[in-house]
Amino acid sequence: MEKVKQTLVAAVLALTLSGLFIAHLVLPDEELSSSERRKLEQLPELTWEDVFSGDYFADLEIYLLDQFPLREQFRTLKAQFQYKVLGMRDNNDIYLAGGHLMKLEYPFKASQAKLAIDKFNAILASHPQIGDAYYALIPDKNYFLAEQNGFPAMDYAALVQQAQEINAQYIDIFPLLSADDYYFTDSHWRQECIVPVAQALAEAMGAQVDGMEAYRTEVEGGFYGVYADQSALPLNWEILTVLRSDVTDAAVVYSVEQNKTIPVYNWQDFLGMDPYDVYLSGAEAVLTMENPLAQNDRELVVFRDSFGSSMAPLLLSGYSKVTLVDIRYIASSLLDDYVSFDGADVLFLYSTAIFNAGATLK
Question: For the chain, what is the mean pLDDT?
Answer without folding.
Answer: 85
